[in-house]
Amino acid sequence: MKILVCISHVPDTTSKINFTDGDTKFDTNGVQFVINPNDEFGLTRAMWFKEKQGASVDVVNVGGPETEPTLRKALAIGADTAIRVNTEAKDGFQVAKNLAQVVSNGGYDLVIAGRESIDYNGGMVPGMLAALLDANFVNNCISLEIDGNAVKAVREIDGGKESVSTTLPLVIGGQKGLVEESDLRIPNMRGIMTARSKPLSVVDAVDASAETASVSFEKPAPKGQVKLVSADNVGELVELLHNDAKVI
Amino acid sequence: MSVLVYTESDKGTFKKIALEVASYAKTVADQLGTTVTAVTINADDTSILGNYGVDKVLQVTNNALDTFNAKAYASVIAQAAENESSKVVIVSSSADSKYLAPILSINLNAGYVPNVVAAPSSTEPFTVKRNTFTNKAFANTAIETEVKLIGLSKNAFGLKENSASAKAEAFSPSIPELGITVESVDKVTGKVTIADAEIVVSGGRGLKGPENWGMIEELADVLGAATACSKPVSDLGWRPHSEHVGQTGKPVAANLYIAVGISGAIQHLAGINASKVKVVINTDPEAPFFKAADYGIVGDAFEVVPQLIEKLKEFKAQQ
Ligand SMILES: Cc1cc2nc3c(=O)[nH]c(=O)nc-3n(C[C@H](O)[C@H](O)[C@H](O)COP(=O)(O)OP(=O)(O)OC[C@H]3O[C@@H](n4cnc5c(N)ncnc54)[C@H](O)[C@@H]3O)c2cc1C
Ligand SMILES: Nc1ncnc2c1ncn2[C@@H]1O[C@H](COP(=O)(O)O)[C@@H](O)[C@H]1O
Asked: Residue with the nearest Cα to atom 38 of ligand 1?
C-alpha cells in the first residue's frame, strides 16, 4: 500500500496572532511552526500501517522553502520520502489541485490529511482533493482499518460516531482518535540523523489559481472586564444572565 | 439566479441552523435583488421556511438519502443549484455540511469560504468575513469565481423572521454511486448535543474525578444544556472523548458557555471563543479564564454549583 500524508505547516497553538502590511499579511515574526496537530495523528497512523502491514509512507506539503524543517520533522518521525510542491499556499482549492497532481503521479492508494488545519481552519483540502480524484472520502475520521482493498473507518458525527465501510483509493480527514495522544511519536536522535539523508524532492506547482483571497485581517474587539459575582451571592449570576446577558 | 440554501433536517424536522442559514440567505438575496430557494432532503413539512424568507423549496424525497452521504448530498445540492442557475449557495457549519461543502465546491466550480460570520460586506467583489486562526482573528475574504459557496458559522447571524411563500415543488435529482456504506450509528439519544446546544456546561480537571460530574449534569439539565469537558478530563477517561472541546476537540459556538474548574488554557479558549457569553467558576482568581469570560465567580465549584442549581430552579419556577 502506498500512503501519502498531507502535512500542513502551521503556527504552534500558543502563538500570538498578529498581522502586518496594513493587516493584509500574517506576521510570522517570532512564530514557531509545527506539523498541524491533526496531521500528526494521521502520520502516526500511517507509521502503524507501515510497520504492521507493510506500506510506504510519503509526506507532502504545498508551500515555500520555509516549510522544509516541518517536512524534515515528519521524516524524522519515520516517513520514507518527502515532497514539497514549490508554491505559496493561497487557498484550499489551489492546494488541493496541487496535491491531486502529486497523488496521480505517485499512484497512492491512501491519502491521509487532517480534518482541518489550525491556521486557516478551512477543513477544505481533503474533501476537495477527494472530489478532484474521484476517490472515496471519510471526514472526521477517528479510526481506520485496512485489509487489502477493504476499509473500515469510524467518523465522529454531531452527538456520536458512525462506522462505515468503503474501499481504496481513499482520502481521509483525520483527527485525534486515529491514534491516541500517548502514541504520538517524538523524533528521536537517530530519526533526526537519518532524516537528513532521506529524499526531499521539490516539484513544480500546477497551473492552478486560487478561487478566494484573504483581503484583510481583523482581530476581535478587546474584551471588557469580567463581571465578578461573589460566591456568597450566586443568585446575582442568575439575575445577570437573565437581565443583562439575556441568555437564560 | 436565486440564492440557494441547503436547509438541513433531522428525522424530517428542520434543525435550528437550517432556519439560521435561511435567514442569512434572505439577507444575501436582498443585497443581490433576487429570491431564495431552499433545497431539502427528506424533510416533512417545509412551510416553516417561509417564515425565514424562503420563496421556493425544492423538496427531495428519496430513501437512498435516508442516511447522510457527503458525495450524494453534495451532488443533490449541486443539481439544485444548476436547476436554479444560482450564483450563491449557502450551507451551515454542521459536521455534515462541513463534510459535503468541499465536494460541492468542486462540483460547482465554486470558490468556498467556511466559518462565515456576517452578511457580505460587498457583493462586487463578493467579500465575506470569516473566523480564522481558531477564532483568534477574522479574515475578510473575496470569492473570485462566478458561483460562490458560503459556509455560515453557527450562532453568528441569528434568526430573522420574514414572510415568504416557500412554495414547495418535488425535485428528483439523480443519485451518484455512494462509495461508502454506513454500518452502524452510535448516537447519544435524549441528550442535547454540543453542536446543537444553545447552552453548554463544561467541566475541567478542577472537578477532581468522574464521580463529581453529577452536579455538572444536573446543572446542564436545569438549563437544557449539553455537557462538555476540557481535554485532560477526556484523556483521563473521566468523560467520553465526544465531550472534549477546544482547539483539538469539538468547537463550541453556544449562546452561553459555563466553565467549571477549567483554567482557560489558550488551546481550550481557542475552541470555545466563538460562544457569545462565557461564565467561569474557579477557585483561582488568577486563572486565565477570568480574562476571557464575561461573568465569573471566584469560588469552590463544590459549593457554588449546587447553589447555582438551586437558584436556577427557583428562577425557572417563577418563569
Ligand atoms: C497541542 C495542544 C492542543 C490542546 N488542545 C486542547 C483542547 O482542544 N481542549 C482543551 O481543553 N485543552 C487542550 N489542550 C490542553 C490545554 O493546554 C490545558 O492543559 C487544558 O485545557 C487544561 O485543562 P483544565 O483547565 O481542565 O485543567 P487545569 O489546567 O488543571 O485546570 C484546573 C482548574 O480548576 C481549578 N480548580 C481546582 N479546584 C477547583 C474547585 N474546587 N472549584 C473550582 N475550580 C477549581 C484550578 O484553579 C484550575 O484553574 C491542548 C494542549 C496542547 C499542547
Ligand atoms: N499547504 C498544504 N500542504 C499539504 N497539505 C495541506 C496543506 N494545507 C492543508 N493541507 C492538508 O489538508 C488538511 C486540512 O487543511 P485545511 O483545509 O486548510 O483546513 C490539513 O490537515 C493537511 O492535511
From this structure: B206
Cα A91 to averaged position of ligand 1 atoms, centre (Å): 33
Q: Which residues contact A210 (CB under 8 A, 6 or more apart)?
A: A90, A91, A93, A94, B144
Domain A2-219 sits in CATH 3.40.50.620 = yes
User: What is the residue extent of each domain of chain A?
Assistant: 2-219
Q: Tell me: the pLDDT tens digits for B7-48? A: 999 999 999 999 999 999 999 999 999 999 999 999 999 999
Which atom of ligand 1 is the closest one to the Cα of B264?
25
Predicted ipTM of the assembly:
0.94
Q: In chain B, whose CA is at the least distance from the CA of A164?
A: B182
Query: Is B191 in Cβ contact with A128 (below 8 Å)?
Result: no
Distance, in Å, from the CA atom of B215 to the CA atom of B307, rounded to the nearest integer, reads 10
Domain boundaries, chain B: 3-170, 199-317
Q: Which has the closest alpha carbon to B173: B88, B84, B62, B99?
A: B62
Domain B199-317: top CATH class: alpha beta
pTM over 0.90: yes
Question: What stretches in chain A show pLDDT beneath 70?
Answer: none
Measure CB to CB from residue B256 to each of A37, A228, A247 and give the nearest one.
A247
pLDDT at B19: 97
Of A119, A163, A211, the CB nearest to B144: A211
Interface test with B, best of A91, A162, A212 (most B CBs within 10 A): A212
Q: What are phi and psi of A212, to 5 degrees?
A: -135, 160
Q: What is the CATH architecture of B3-170?
A: 3-Layer(aba) Sandwich (3.40)
Residue B257 CA, ligand 1 centroid: distance in Å = 15
How far apart are alpha carbons A134 and A164 in whole angstroms?
18
